[in-house]
Design goal:
This protein is an alpha+beta fold. It has 14 helices and eight strands. Strands 1-2-3 form a three-stranded antiparallel beta sheet, with helices on one face. Strands 4-5-8 form a three-stranded antiparallel beta sheet. Strand 4 and strand 5 form a beta hairpin.
């Protein structure tokens, strides 16, 4: 690319001017307000260098998408990725994009970091959960990275240095033993037995909601008190059914205690077994999660069913089980477990220090 750089004094400071040739025409980019000093001159030169790199990158952009809007891009992105992503993952992208609907009519190339920040601020002001905001930003970042690296629509992603705060900290809620018993007792007395059993399996076995709804009676070994987790209930091609598990680590066997054994046997003997041998004749995991959350809130616990799985893991670690075994029971890899539950080990170390100080 043919170009010329020039720095001149203007309005008490310095102005950087970058002239460049596009086709047969010369065009110009300029910026003023740099300090009239060696330091200001250096910053002006850096600005021209960065601008030149951006212009050269823009030469390789796909002209077919020159004026594509955020809405048209996200629709195209979802359609193109359907073949390689699960319905659940596609749904999380769709949900995330809707949170940034204020960008819909903007051309993708004109969207700035501040435009995105305003959308995030809107979520924070609406008391959205910190984890939810983080997920939405992550999905948006993935899509914009595709716009840069796959579609060549833009040269640089604006999803960077986004600040946010949410309703909760990054550490999930974990109930103690007394709270677990109180929750189970409330659900058992006040709601249908199936919701009690689902809650029991989440907090005493650490199962995901899809694994619970995919559980069949033939996968329960009452003699050895063991659950075999090798399938889940999930959305496939727009409808719910049996599906593969989340990852290879998810395929596992999970032991259960005498309370779970007793309650499962009573539930089995008191209910007609479904034709597909499922424990629960429920389909929609999302609506079930919402319904259970409302049950838990009414019982005095502001938690989700997934946080009962977190409670299971946290209590195992507090009671001395090593992280490798906890990871195996959860269906995680060890690195993921160490990252998620590092704060538990920190708490245990602090407790050890307190005990040592008393000796």
């Amino acid at each position: 690319m043919d170009y010329k750089e020039h720095i001149r004094k203007k309005d008490g400071g310095l102005q950087a001017i970058l002239s460049y040739k596009e086709g047969r025409k010369w065009k110009q980019k300029s910026k003023q307000g740099f300090e009239d000093s060696k330091k200001g001159e250096k910053k002006a030169q850096q600005w021209m260098h960065d601008m030149l790199n951006q212009l050269e990158n823009d030469l390789h952009l796909n002209r077919n998408y020159k004026n594509i809007t955020f809405k048209d891009f996200t629709d195209m992105y979802i359609e193109d990725r359907k073949a390689n992503l699960s319905d659940n993952t596609i749904a999380t992208f769709d949900t995330a994009f809707k949170k940034f609907s204020d960008l819909n009519n903007l051309e993708l190339k004109k969207i700035t970091t501040m435009d995105i920040q305003r959308c995030v601020n809107k979520m924070s002001n609406a008391n959205a959960r910190e984890s939810s905001i983080k997920t939405h930003i992550s999905k948006l970042k993935t899509a914009f990275n595709y716009a840069v690296n796959k579609y060549s629509i833009i040269s640089v992603s604006p999803v960077k240095d986004i600040e946010f705060k949410g309703e909760k900290s990054g550490i999930k809620v974990a109930l103690n033993k007394v709270e677990v018993n109180k929750l189970l007792d409330n659900v058992k007395k006040s709601h249908s037995v199936k919701y009690y059993i689902i809650t029991l399996l989440a907090v005493k076995c650490g199962l995901r909601i899809g694994e619970i709804l995919g559980l069949t009676w033939d996968k329960i070994d009452f003699k050895n008190c063991m659950l075999e987790i090798n399938i889940q209930w999930n959305k496939i091609d727009g409808s719910y059914g049996f599906a593969k598990l989340k990852s290879n680590n998810s395929y596992r066997k999970v032991p259960f205690n005498n309370l779970v054994k007793s309650e499962l046997l009573h539930y089995k003997n008191s209910n007609v077994i479904n034709i597909n041998n499922k424990l629960f004749n429920l389909n929609n995991t999302k609506s079930l999660s919402t319904y259970l959350r409302n049950i838990y809130i009414k019982a005095g616990f502001d938690i989700t069913i997934h946080e009962l799985r977190h409670t299971y893991a946290t209590n195992l670690i507090y009671n001395g089980l090593d992280l490798k075994t906890v990871a195996k029971l959860l269906g995680h890899d060890i690195e993921q477990t160490m990252k998620t539950y590092s704060h538990v080990n920190d708490d245990m170390m602090n407790e050890a220090i307190n005990i040592i100080n008393k000796i």
